[in-house]
Recover the amino acids of this structure.
């Protein structure tokens, strides 16, 4: 279907600790179909792609058009690089606060990925 769909499906499903069988049961399809989608052995229909997009609350354009395996860490990598380059300009209090904010946001995203169920 799209460049990243199969990779994203597997990544998001595993992030949410949902087995292929659980997902298949929720979507009323065979487990082997999920496996074939994830392994890029079978194309997904638009209808099933929409069901998955809705199930995981991920916009279709992101699910199909972005590599979500790196998107989830991209922002933090950029923030950490920016922090490293400018840490000499910051007070110790500022450094601690920025580190706290980065770590807090990482935990929030991990929690969102784990709780985004139907």
């Amino acid at each position: 279907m799209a460049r990243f769909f199969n990779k994203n499906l597997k990544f998001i499903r595993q992030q949410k600790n949902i087995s292929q069988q659980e997902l298949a049961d929720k979507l009323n399809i065979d487990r082997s179909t999920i496996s074939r989608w994830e392994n890029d052995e079978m194309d997904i229909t638009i209808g099933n792609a929409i069901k998955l997009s809705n199930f995981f609350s991920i916009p279709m354009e992101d699910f199909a058009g972005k590599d979500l395996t790196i998107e989830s860490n991209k922002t933090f990598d950029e923030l950490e690089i920016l922090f490293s380059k400018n840490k000499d300009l910051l007070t110790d209090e500022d450094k601690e606060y920025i580190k706290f904010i980065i770590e807090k946001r990482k935990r929030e995203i991990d929690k969102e990925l784990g709780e985004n169920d139907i």
Summary: The chain has a mean pLDDT of 81. The chain has two domains: 5-65, 68-115. The helical segments are 5-15, 20-27, 31-38, 46-56, 60-65, 68-86, 92-115. Residues 55 and 118 are 6 Å apart (CA to CA).
